[in-house]
Amino acid sequence: MAFILLLAFVALLVVSITWLWDYIITRLIWRPHTIAKEFREQGICGPSYKFLKGCNEDIKIMKEEQDSLVLDVHDHNYLSRIAPHYLKWRAQYGEPFLYWFGPKPRICIFDYELARQILSSKSGHFVKNDPPPTLLALVGKGLSLLEGTDWVRHHRVIKPAFAMDKLKMMTKTMLACAQNMIKELENQAYQNKNGEIELDFNKWFRELSADIISHTAFGSSYQLGKEVFQTQYDLLEINLASLLNVQIPILKYLPTERNRRKWMLEKNLRSSLLQIIQPRLATSSIDYGNDLLGLMLHACIASKQGGMEGGLSLSIDEIIDECKMFFFAGHETTSLLLTWTVFLLSVYPEWQERLRQEVLREAGREYPSNDALSKLKEMTMVLLETLRLYCPALFMQRKPIVDITVGARKLPKGVAIVIPIPIMHRDKEIWGENADEFNPLRFENGITRAAKVPHALLAFALGPRACIGQNFAMLEAKSVLALMLQKFSFTISPNYVHAPTDQFMLTPKFGLPVILRRLDVCN
After folding, report:
1. Phi, psi of 70 (to 5 degrees)
2. Which SS3 state, helix, strand or coil, does residue 111 take?
3. Are 109 and 96 spatial neighbours (Cβ–Cβ below 8 Å)?
4. For residue range 428-453, what is the model confidence (pLDDT) as tens digits?
5. What are the CA-CA distances from residue 455 to residues 331, 385, 431, 480, 506 (Å)?
6. Which of 470, 439, 435 is nearest to 112 (CA)?
7. Backbone CA torsion sign across 393, 372, 368, 162
8. d(Cα 205, Cα 331) in Å, to the nearest integer?
9. Residue range 405-430: average pLDDT?
10. Contact 389/78 with Cβ under 8 angstroms?
């Protein structure tokens, strides 16, 4: 018995030593040295690697130094607030440069052609970079994080939910949700003799977009989805608080206060989603609906009954992950698009009036139809310019799964490639000398002719992995703005502080306080 225990101990010791050797010597010391040498030979340099921490401390210090910076409302160059490290290292080391996120190498590129080749590749050699575990718990391993055959399978199930005919059917729901918000704002405005109210539109748009995605994609009300959204925001706070900390794998398994809270939130998130899913499963009908949730449930149940063809099947756990992804991304992106659009229209009242006249010309004072929304060309131009200047998604990441050469660059397997969207959207060689200015007219002839290259706008990514919900987001934004412009005018509140910040997405640090005025009082 003692001999068997000794053998078990020796075996465990050998395994532990092997793991420690691989993790400490190979991953934390030898690989960073080798990667840095390979890139130096290509003329690519960057800040030095620090054991385990990489460049994280430097990034944290630079961001903290810039956090108090406040901009003028007409200044749209907020790069020093969200990416001071990228600006410093680009000036110091040139383009591209290599840096270290903990022990993991990242190469930051600024070349549009290189970005196009990577994002448009159909070879399968470039995949999404691994998200932090806490972020994965927040958004789930849904469509945007899947690869290979899993991505194909999920994409085939989900894509029909975002077809244009389905989106047109969703317009009534979007308008109804928006109208509820408009009525509430009108009631508040009517209580003041001057017809004015001040409110934080960032908060209002967040709730409205959550209501819309709940109704259109999952057939539930905002109240049912409220627990989901709140839990996701709580998980996001945990992720942001620990993002630049030293990541030691074993620590995520220890019952620390932070881990216990994360585990509880993950459990609550799953439970809340099941409360939305299970009533559909309990129905006696085989028709689970034609919204996103209905299509996924049909793929799940039919596969269990052997009725799915071509491998179009999803498990309940996969459906839960997709719900996490679309609940978060489906409302956060659009709410921020609306927030920043209202900010810009408040700062540039001449454009606000142009859009109002366009809405009144195409839809009058009635609910805008799908046909009317499709004719709002100037509104589309403003939304695209908002996405250029204030794109909610800040950085895209890909990594090669094999050693590969793209253009003149040799990219080793596993090195994350960072594409800094807000920096590239201000490239004056591509967008012109007025790249830092708000000018919707640059999109007068469409996206592909707005800049010197047709793929200059990166807001929804490019290629086969472009955002599946981009038409949904644009239609929702148009619907909400059209109703707002019919009823109200709006200006920035004196209490607004212009400090865009990186909270996983680009958000106004202090919200968006706006003074809203009823048009019947203004006139």
Report:
1. -115, 135
2. coil
3. yes
4. 999 999 999 999 999 999 999 999 99
5. 25, 14, 11, 27, 21
6. 435
7. negative
8. 9
9. 93
10. no
